[in-house]
């Protein structure tokens, strides 16, 4: 799920502090940016030409995506300007506790790769609502689509465009450059980003999105590594090692990822609300997992998903450490915490790389935007239009309807996005709160549908309606209606609602148990042989997550009396030895059993027979 930027709105008075480039340099940046963007567009076009003539080719890339393209697209789909700027702003302002949203996503990725993806591909589905219709009924399918559309059109897509526009305006003085007002600049950038992103999504389909995402992902990794290196060199007066030593020994508490109760992400929240939020985002959010649904087989889907989990471990290094470097370089002299990354980039990145950086930044925005657009159009076409209005529609008509709907969503989102400038302070926190309207009920009914066979469709419908009302009351309603502030962090509300709603479904299933067992059909459209290193890679990924928290903790780099504590090396050594032993054991003992488990027919699974 994307991290909300905890900062004030960007008003015109901040722009006295924003880096101003010379006009000649700006035009060089813009032209070189257009070159790199054009190169990505050309390569994407060449690799996808003639691949979108069928509905499967358009919506699911012909079910032919390899693990590399899946991982690259997942990475760029997840990352956007609001994280690049916002996470670094949090590193500048506080510490690394916000890395929980990113690093612990690996746990949800493991659940997707080993458990849920085999079920999705085994059912031969194209969308999550379709999967729910097979387990429940079409009523649940339509309610789920409604939840997704509410979140995408009113919250996620506009905020993605808005954050991208603000990122560009932080780096370049657009009003002065073009002689227009702040508001006009915002509208201009939003519509430019929206139109370019829509072209990828509407006319290229999922394969074009995946290819362009992968290319932009390579660029993001290059920039992500380069910026902190340049920052360390600046901090160490030319010595990268001295710069590293400075952040490890001066104010080491900035490197602590173990959040306290006063931090925006308390450590306990990792095991409650964040766990379920990540589980939804990485295991059931259509615009994220649509790439894995387009995998050529299960093995490639698992490779792509798990590789993206390893990429997430890099996020603290190039999306939070630069913020810490900016703290040491500029102290508290920045007008907004969210100027930390743009200021560092503008001061340290060579001018000849500025266009490449801007292209990568916009690529991340395009990725999130066009992925959301593609998924919204896919769900509307396959989950609403086709089953309700045209069950016999051919591929050409389905693609045409998808393009029309995608265009409508793009225009509406581009019209809403600039209006967010009028929102009160705390906009980004509000966006995360609004995500709570649809993430928890969807993951609850999905998991309960898989884990139970007698819970009826009515239980899912009750939970959806209950959640919308109860979530509003817990987060806003009691205070707005009765003046009673419950003092509950909305992340904890996520966890509370998950268990309450799972309990509601079990009770309804017990009281109104259906006579028939609901079973998800097994109709795989590709090879269901798992990747032979899936379990081993999952073990190593989980171990690496633990290692990240050891590294960024009071026994690691946040140690106050040196670079690391005496306990650091023994803890890391023990973790590595244990991970290697369990991995080797998994290859010998678990791989065969796991493959056998996945290849059981539904009847064999029901009777627990080989």
TrEMBL record:
Transmembrane segments: 26-45, 57-79, 99-117, 143-165, 185-203, 215-235, 264-282, 313-331, 351-373, 404-424, 430-451, 458-478, 490-512, 533-555, 567-587
InterPro entries referenced in this protein's UniProt entry, alphabetically: Na/Glc_symporter_sf (IPR038377), Na/solute_symporter (IPR001734), Na/solute_symporter_CS (IPR018212)
Recorded topology in the membrane: Multi-pass membrane protein
Listed Pfam families: SSF
Keywords tagged on the record: Membrane, Transmembrane, Transmembrane helix
Location of this chain's protein in the cell: Membrane
Family per similarity comment: Belongs to the sodium:solute symporter (SSF) (TC 2.A.21) family.
Protein name: Solute:sodium symporter family transporter
The organism of origin for this protein: Saccharibacillus kuerlensis
């Amino acid at each position: 799920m994307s991290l909300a930027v905890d900062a004030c709105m960007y008003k015109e008075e901040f722009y006295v502090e924003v880096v101003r480039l010379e006009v000649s340099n700006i035009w060089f940046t813009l032209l070189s940016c257009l070159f790199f963007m054009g190169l990505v567009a050309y390569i994407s076009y060449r690799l996808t030409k003639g691949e979108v003539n069928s509905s499967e080719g358009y919506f699911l890339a012909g079910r032919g995506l390899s693990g590399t393209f899946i991982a690259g697209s997942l990475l760029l789909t997840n990352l956007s300007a609001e994280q690049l700027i916002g996470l670094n702003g949090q590193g500048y302002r506080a510490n690394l506790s916000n890395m929980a949203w990113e690093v612990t996503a690996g746990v949800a990725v493991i659940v997707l790769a080993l458990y849920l993806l085999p079920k999705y591909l085994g059912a031969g589905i194209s969308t999550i609502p379709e999967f729910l219709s097979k387990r429940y009924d079409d009523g649940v399918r339509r309610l789920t689509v409604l939840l997704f559309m509410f979140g995408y059109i009113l919250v996620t897509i506009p905020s993605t465009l808005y954050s991208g526009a603000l990122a560009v305006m932080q780096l370049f003085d657009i009003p002065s450059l073009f002689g227009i007002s702040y508001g006009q600049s915002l509208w201009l950038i939003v519509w430019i980003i929206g139109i370019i992103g829509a072209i990828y999504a509407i006319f290229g389909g999922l394969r074009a999105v995946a290819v362009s995402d992968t290319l932009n992902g390579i660029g993001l990794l290059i920039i992500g590594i380069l910026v902190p290196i340049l920052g360390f060199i600046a901090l160490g007066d030319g010595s990268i090692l001295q710069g590293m030593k400075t952040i490890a020994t001066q104010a080491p508490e900035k490197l602590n990822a173990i959040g306290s109760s006063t931090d925006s992400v308390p450590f306990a929240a990792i095991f409650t609300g964040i766990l379920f939020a990540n589980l939804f985002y990485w295991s059931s959010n259509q615009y994220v997992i649509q790439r894995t649904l387009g995998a050529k087989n299960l093995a490639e889907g698992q490779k792509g998903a798990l590789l993206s989990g390893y990429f997430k471990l890099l996020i603290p290094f190039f999306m939070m450490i630069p913020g810490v470097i900016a703290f040491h370089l500029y102290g508290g002299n920045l007008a907004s915490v969210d100027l930390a990354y743009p200021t560092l980039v503008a001061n340290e990145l060579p001018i000849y790389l500025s266009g490449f950086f801007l292209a990568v930044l916009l690529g991340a925005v395009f990725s999130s935007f066009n992925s959301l657009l593609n998924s919204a159009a896919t769900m509307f076409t396959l989950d609403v239009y086709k089953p309700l209005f045209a069950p016999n529609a051919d591929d050409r008509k389905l693609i045409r309807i998808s393009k029309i709907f995608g265009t409508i969503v793009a225009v509406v989102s581009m019209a809403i996005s600039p209006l967010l400038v009028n929102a009160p302070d705390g906009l980004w926190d509000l966006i995360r709160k609004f995500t709570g309207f649809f993430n928890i009920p969807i993951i609850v009914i999905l998991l309960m549908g898989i884990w139970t066979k007698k819970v009826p469709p009515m239980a899912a419908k009750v939970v959806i309606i209950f959640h919308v009302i109860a979530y509003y009351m817990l987060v806003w309603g009691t205070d707005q209606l009765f003046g009673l502030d419950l003092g509950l962090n909305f992340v904890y509300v996520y966890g509370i609602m998950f268990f309450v709603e799972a309990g509601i479904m079990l009770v309804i299933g017990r009281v109104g148990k259906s006579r028939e067992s609901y079973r998800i059909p097994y109709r795989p459209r590709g090879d269901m042989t798992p990747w032979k290193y899936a379990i081993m890679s999952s073990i190593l990924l989980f171990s690496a997550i633990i290692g990240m928290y050891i590294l960024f903790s009071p026994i690691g780099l946040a140690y106050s009396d040196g670079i690391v504590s005496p306990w650091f090396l023994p803890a890391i050594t023990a973790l590595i030895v244990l991970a290697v032993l369990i991995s080797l054991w998994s290859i010998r003992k678990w791989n065969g059993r796991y493959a056998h488990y996945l290849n059981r027919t539904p009847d064999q699974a029901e009777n627990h027979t080989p």
